[in-house]
């Protein structure tokens, strides 16, 4: 017969995802009351923006079993698209963001249909080439994008009379989007589509034999990841009211992949940890800022050598194994 304590533990286990999201939301709700430093809040907001990109990329890498070194390009499409749409063309911000996300989806579809016939390092090189093309356009088409000097004067977002023109207001906005993206990804991976993607990552032949449309599944998750990156880029542009090509180069794409690997490929919750760690690392080792890319590369190599499933996933698996061994010896 189950005791009250057993029932409580069972309830927590059964609803662990909802309870964890609720706890995260509660922390985020009071965070600006605890941390009043605008700079630290700005870092927190940047983590939220990057989290949206990395969540989509983790679906593509961890669940679809593919690799992309070009997601900063979709991030750029969102940022520059909303900048041009609201500033140059004078459109309303929210409809422009939606329209730009649709454009990013169409571009992802156009790129994904031929590129996703490739796999492994061939696909990585194809997506890397796409990133280089977008970056070159941003730099060279200076009459539209502002060129190397960047694009300024982007208006702040607003809802009614509330203008998101400071770090506290923007915190609530951007983390709302990040939590919604988190919920979307958590529900997706637990659905039939997510199980199909997980099978695809393990063995494409076996997944195909089980009825998974491999090519369609790859394209769908690629388009979804591009839309998340685009929305994140739009929020980035409206947050800083300025964008420049250096925020969307190939090294940024590589950093996104490192965030996925550090957090754990296929670990949605690990995405938050990986994104936070790689975003905050330069702040912790400010004296080594010039060697940031080298340090990130070393972290990636160490993780792949010793914890190929990712830091968070690796630690969780090690703890579970240790607990299981103790139970067996007891």
TrEMBL record:
Keywords: Cell membrane, Membrane, Transmembrane, Transmembrane helix
A GO cellular component annotation in the UniProt record: plasma membrane
Molecular-function GO terms, alphabetical: branched-chain amino acid transmembrane transporter activity
Main location: membrane
Coiled coil start-end: none
Keyword Phosphoprotein: no
Topology with respect to the bilayer: Multi-pass membrane protein
Cited InterPro entries: ABC_transp_permease, LivM-like
Localization, UniProt: Cell membrane
The protein's name: Branched-chain amino acid ABC transporter permease
The gene coding this protein: livM
